[in-house]
Every structure is written in C-alpha cells, then in structure tokens.
Amino acid sequence: MAELRTQLGEDDDEDEPEYVQFKVILLGDGAVGKTSLATRFCEDHFAKQYKQTIGLDFFVKRVVLPGDVHVCLQIWDIGGQSIGGKMLSNYIYGSAAVVLCYDITNYQSFQHLEDWLFLVKRTFDQTPMPYTALMGNKVDLAHIRAVKVEKHSQEEGLFLQGLHSFRRALRCRMAWAASLSTVYIVICYGRDALGSSTFHHVAL
Amino acid sequence: MEYFRQANVRDKMEAMLTCWCQTQNTKYKQGLNEVLAPFLNLQVPLSGETDEGRTPAKDDEVFDLFAAFVQHYAPFFFCEEFVPLQCAFIFFRRLLLYHCPQLQNFFAEKGVTPDMFCMPWFLTLFASKTPMRLTVQLWDRLLERGEQHFFMFLALAVVIKAEQTILQAERSALPEILTSLGVFSVKEMESLWSFAEELVMQTPATFMSRVRRIVLHPEEKELPQLERLEKEGVFFIFPEEVVGHCYPPRPGEALKPWQPPPSCTWRLLLLDLRPAAEFEAMRLPAAVHFDAAARFPQSSWSGRKAALFTKGSSAPESSEVLDALKETLGENWLGDDQAHICLVGRSEESWLLRAMYTVLTSELSLRHISVASGGFEAVLKFAQKYSYDIVQQERWSPVGAFDSVLRPRAGPSAASLAAESAAVAAAAAEGAAKKLSSGLSLLANLSAKREEGKTEKATTPAAAIPKLIDRPGNWSPEADMSQLPKLFQKDLQSAFWHYNDCIALIVRPPNAMCPELTNRGLQGCKSVLAIQHGQLLCAKVLGEELSLLAKFDVRMLVRGLSSLARPMTAKVLYFSGAEKVKSFVFALQAARKARPPAKPPQKPGPLGVPAFAQEVVAQRLSSEGPMLQEQAAEQPKDGALPDSPKAHEQQADGQAERPQDGAVPDSPKANEQQADEQAEQPQDGAVPDSPKANEQQEQGERPKDEAVPDSSKADQPKVPGKDAEDILDG
C-alpha cells in the first residue's frame, strides 16, 4: 500500500492582504441623505427614490491607501429615526469615525446635529472622541439653500469642507477618500496628530 | 412601485398617516408608511382578467383596515420610546439561544445584536424588506393564523435557515449579510413558514404568554420592565407549565391551559439541582437529580460568577459539567431532540441556576435549556395546589430513573414499560454473551489480519515514513506549544467523526508562534483529527489533553481538496494507507453534506450493551492488547496508537469493512453508525450474532433518527486499495 499524502488548501483568504478595519457611522436627521452617501460611496450609484432606513443598514468598502495600506470600512448607516438613546449608544460605540450629516435645504436638520453630537459625546464620555466630520448634503439644491456656507465653516471651525450632493459622484468619492486617509492617520498616529478640535475635515 | 410615486397617492398616504397619528395621539414613527402601503395598494385598479366583482377599496375602508391591522398585529407604533420593541429583541435573543445557541453565541462573540437586523422585520412585520406581493401573502397567512407573536418565529426561521452563511461570514461582511436576509420568493416563504410553525411547536408556552404580556400588550410602559427583563438573563418556564409537563392529564379531566396539548412532541426533562438531601426529602416524580453544587464545589461555582464573563477561562470546567451530565442522563440525551431540559433549584440559589444555564447554553451550546421560574418552591406549590403526588422521603437512584423520563409520553403504562425494558435487557445480555464469543473469534481474525498486514508493510521502505517529533514538521522548535488552545479527549466524544492516526506534517501555525512556513522534510507529529460542528479539528495528543493545532471549516476544506495545485498553503496531513485517506475524504464530504451543526448528528442510542458486557469485552481486549500492540509496534504507523479499546474503535470508524471492530461496543454512537451501515448492506452481517445485529434489534423499538445523512452511509469506503487521487477527483 503506497504512502499517501493529502494536501489541503485552507480558506481562500490566504492570498488576500490583511485589512485594517474601521467602523464609520453616519448620523443625522431623517432624509438628509445618509443612505445616499453610503451607497454612492460603496456601490457607486444613486437611488432616485427615497427609501427610509429602518434601524440600521450596513455597507462595506475596501480601499487601498497610499503605502499599500488596505483598509476595510464598515459603514453603519443609522436610520434617522432610530429608536431609544440606549440602542443608539450601542451603535455609536466603538466607531472610529462619525460623519454628521445634514441637508443644506433644511435648517432644522443642521440644528439637530447638536443633539446627534451630544449622543456621540455621551457614548464616548471620558474616552477620546472618534474622528468627526460634518457633511452638508444636497448642494445641487443650492438655490434653496437654508444653511449658509459660513455657518457650516463656522461650525466646523477649521476649513471649508465637503458640501456634497451625492448626485455628483466624483466629489463624493474624493471626499470619502480624503476623509478616509484622515481616519487612518488619526488611528495610527494618535488623535493629537490632528489637533484636539472636535471637527476635522479635509479640504477638497 | 409606480403607483406610490403619484403625487395624489403620496398626499393621500400622508393624510392617512397624519390622521392615524392624531387619532392615536402619538408621533409618526418610521415604518408606518411601509405598513400602510399594502393597504393602499388595494386601490390600485385591477388589470387584466381578475374578477369583475371586486371594486377598488374606498379610502375609509383602507384606513380602517390599516388601523385595525396596526392595532392588532403591529404593536410597536404606540409607545414613544419603543420599549416593547426593545423587550422583543431581548425575547428574541433568548429564543435564538433556546433553539440555536451556537448562532446566538456567535453573534455575542462578534458583537452583533438581533436589533441590528430584526428591527425592520419586527416593526413593519416584514413589509419593509419584502416585495409587496409577498408581504400581502405573508400577512394573509398571519391573519389566518391569528397569533400576534408569530412574526418572531418567522424572523427566527429566517436567521436559522441562513445559519451556515452567517457562521462563515467574514467579520466585516457579517452585518451586511444579516441585513440582507429576508423573504424573497413564495417558495422561500412557504418553507420558512412551516419551519416557523415547527419552531412554535418546539417552544414552551411560557414564552408566548410572556411575549403577549410584556411585548404585545404592555400594561406598564416604563423602562424598569426593560431592565428587569435584561437582568433575568435566562429562558424562564412558569411553574405551571413545568407541572403540566411533569404530570399527565388525569383521565376525565379537561385539559388545563397550562398543560401541553396532546400534539406536543417534546418532553420536559426536569433537572433538579438541589442538594441530595432536599431532593430525597421532596421532589417531583419526573425529576432527575443533578447535584451541581456537590459535584462542583461551591467555590468553583461562585468563582464562576466572576469568571462567567471572561471567555475561554472556564472551558475545561464546562466540559466537566458536560461529562457529569452525560453520566447522569446517559450518553445519548444530547442527541435527543425531544427532550428539553428545565433546570430547577432552590429559589435562593438563583446564581447556581444562572451559572448552570450559562454553562449549558453559552459555553456548551446546548439547545432547549430553560429554567423554572420561582425555583423548586414555586413548582412544588403549584403541584400541591392541584394535589399532584409529590415523591417524599425516597432514596434517589439514578439507575433507570431517566429512562422513564426520556421515554416518549405516548408510551405504554409504567408497568409494561418496566417489563419491556427488562425483556430488552435480558435480550441484550444474551446477545452480549454471544457477541463475546463471536468477539473472540473476531479478535483472532484481527490478529491474523495484522499478521498479514505486517508482512505487507514490511515491504514498504521505512524511509517514506515521517519522523515523529513533538510538533508539526514546519513549526519552529522554539514555538511554545503550551500556548495552544487545549481540548480534552472527552470533548471529542460528541464529534461526528474521530480519527487518531494521522501525522501532521505541515500546519499553518498561529501567527504569533512562527510567521513562516518552512518545510523541514518529512517530520511531523501524530495528531488526532475530528470533525465536530462542521469543523475539522487537528490536535496533538498529550495524555488526556489535546493541544489544538488547527481548526478548519469543513466546507472550505472540501473546496480546497479539489485544488491540489495549491501547495503548502495550510496543511499537509499524512496518512499511512489509502483506506485512511479515503475514509477521511468521505467523512469530510459527509460532514459537508450533513445538516448544519445546529444538530450534530447524534442518535438517541438507548441501552446499548449492558455495562458488564462492555467491561468483559474491554478486559478481554486489554489482555489481548499487548499482543496487538507488539505487532503494531513493528508497523511504524500503528506503533503510536494508544493502547485503549476506544482507540481501536475510533480507528474502526474509518474502516467499517473490518468486522472485528464491532466487538468493542464502547461508544454507542459508533456502534449505531455501523448498525446503520449494516442495515444497508446485509452481506456485512456475516457474523450473525454480532453486536451490530443486536443493536439493530434494539433500535427497532424506537423511531430511527435520520440525523446521519444518507451520504455518510453511502459514501463509506467499501473498495479498498483505491488510489487517493481517484477519490479526490470523484
């Protein structure tokens, strides 16, 4: 009887590089365009119809940053009308970045960001805050703008950042790519690398 | 849907929702629109040749239907903070832990909670994620069934059906996969529906009544309810249901609401955890005693209280608990689908109950575990209230006690049962005696065969046999073997397949140990292979202990088998015979085809062979042992075999065609497997009085469990000497 060997290949991830994983959450009022932001970014399309997110939706995006750093972003699209604060805290917990979204044609959605930010702060309490970005959505409706650009930058404190419409794919991708490297830098080199301000963003 | 894009329809929708919110005096909530849509859809003008008699619904009809439906079936829109919904998630988690603990444990490990994917289902009764045509059919069925809690079971069915996909999901993709689950075709809906119905049947009535009270018709809407529910942490059964299951309905009496309906297919096995003295002083007749505190002294249990939440540290202890349970309930209770275990204990010792519950569910992933709420005291009080008999001042003897408990309820009277089992035991004893004599001749046969094998083996060049070192050949000598996760031999008792004669040449080491794969030639350590819960475990034996070298997903492996072209990626195993390779490959394939690990293929093997007969065989074997071992020692590959009857048996699993192995009825599981094979191939029964025949006889008395997939029988190796390549290709 011959001696025999069996060779077994393990799962197929073998050749794949290791991804650094980050959790990014999208927060903001209902209908400001969080899901559009995520689908544009992850699936590169824009749904013309509004479909409310109930609870949560998840998207995954893999990107390669300069220096051959593979990053896997798990995007938590949190329904604007999500239930009780306790559950929201569970979702916010452990996130590497928070994107606060508002609709530039809806002033209330801008005002409410304070409440959303409060939830984030409460969740992180004593621990360091995640990277936080401010996103003004729907700039293609600038003619009925309700939130002035100055307001945005004032709130943001630093630069002028992403006022987006996710109908304009290119800008969206750039915005994300830029925010991503920031996320990555913050994670790798400590939060102080970018200063201690709550809002950070990247100029386009 | 085009229809809902029309401006006037949208306006109407808005008006209706506003109106509803005003009449209910509540704020608008997400998802209400999804629930309204199917009703509004009733107004869509019918196209084609549908019945003429139907006229589109009027606005107020639509609104009334919608309002009534939400009122009765969609309970979560009324409370501001969604407290009942959050309670529902807690119940759902318990339910999942009850029916599919490995899935819930997997979620817990990955930080996933059911609310992350169940919310749209619960809130809109599947409307938001299901095509509307299907939603309508689904609701139709729901209305017909009339049970408000049914949506939970439907959600449970969806999740459990996707178990394999979920367990194999990569961590980052997991939430996305979970949110993409749902009902997408009529066929799917039908199978999910009947599965959900099955799950309802298998769930204690207490669950439904609590869901009704707390989730569907909450009287107190404040948060304490939620916290209390979160804190209780176990799957409770009310004392009345416990009593209902423990005493058959009295003749001539109407069925009480707390008694299980005659259609109930499962039995409640009452596991009494109180100290022996208390148990003997007073107990329910159907209870089985398990003195948790005495078996595992207080200190270790109370130590557990803290340790419960640190993963991994308590693993050996949970296996001890499992062994003790097996000892109490018999080896086969694990595979008995129809025995649900209810823990009952002193009400002031709830920590013990909780610890035990956690061990059984979270650590051992056992299904159908519950806790009697209120402890023994409450159960006793209820039983006394209905003047049921309580056993008092009677010594407890575990012999045969669980037998009557484990028997199907629809069985004959106790007296005839006893007579029957006496007859069975007698027959078994007789069979065992015959078996012994045949076993001896088989042993003689075996040694003859070994002799042959030896001469055959002698011709193979010794150089081809790997040198055995204490680790896989590619691992660095510095690697710290003590860092490996530990297993115990007994952990593998529930393995679907078990093999202890393979040599691990190349095993991908845990990253921390040594980063590179280097082949140092033909060196390797003898390892145990076992297929358990859909995973192939590869472990190195160190006495009673096993160090886990590697763990592979069976599905992945089978896929990998066909691509031999990828060298040295993960693992090279070395077998010393074509038969072994073959049986290994077959076992892998069978495991892949097998039902999900939710139900590890185990059988309710009943009496097996009387213990004394086993002992005699074992003794006989061990006296023969040295001889066998001597011979084996000359064959390098077998020389490393441990000298226990068990080892022979395990080997036998892979070599079913050698009849002699049947003589060691050590593990009933293996035995039955053989019996099954035999049922298919009568020519194997060349030895008429073999234990297999005996086993079969006994099995005939109870319905055969089909847990072992047909493929595993059909695929068993029958043609020796075939090249491994052939098998791999096949």
Automatic annotation (TrEMBL), chain A:
Keyword Protease: no
Domain of life of the native organism: Eukaryota
SMART domains: RAB (SM00175), RAS (SM00173), RHO (SM00174)
Gene Ontology MF term list: GTP binding; GTPase activity
InterPro entries: P-loop_NTPase (IPR027417), Small_GTP-bd (IPR005225), Small_GTPase (IPR001806)
Pfam short name (any one): Ras
SUPFAM superfamilies: P-loop containing nucleoside triphosphate hydrolases
Keyword Phosphoprotein attributed: no
Keyword annotations from UniProtKB, A to Z: Nucleotide-binding
PANTHER family in UniProt: PTHR47978
Protein name per the record: Ras-related protein Rab-28
TrEMBL record, chain B:
Signal peptide: none
Domain Rhodanese span(s) in chain numbering: 267-388
Ranges where the record places region Disordered: 622-730
Transmembrane segments: none
Presence of keyword Phosphoprotein: no
Chain segments annotated as coiled-coil in the UniProt record: none
Domain Rab-GAP TBC, first and last residues per copy: 1-146
Feature: compositional bias, Basic and acidic residues: 645-660, 699-730
Entry-linked SUPFAM superfamilies: Ypt/Rab-GAP domain of gyp1p
Single GO BP term: retrograde transport, endosome to Golgi
KW Signal (keyword) present: no
GO cellular component annotations of the record: cytosol; trans-Golgi network
Gene3D superfamilies: Ypt/Rab-GAP domain of gyp1p, domain 3
Keywords for the protein's UniProt record, in alphabetical order: Developmental protein, Golgi apparatus
Annotated InterPro entries: Rab-GAP-TBC_dom, Rab-GAP_TBC_sf, Rhodanese-like_dom, TBC1D23
Subcellular location: Golgi apparatus, trans-Golgi network
Pfam families: RabGAP-TBC (PF00566)
Name this polypeptide is given: TBC1 domain family member 23
Protein's organism: Cladocopium goreaui
Highest classification ranks of the organism: Eukaryota, Sar, Alveolata, Dinophyceae, Suessiales
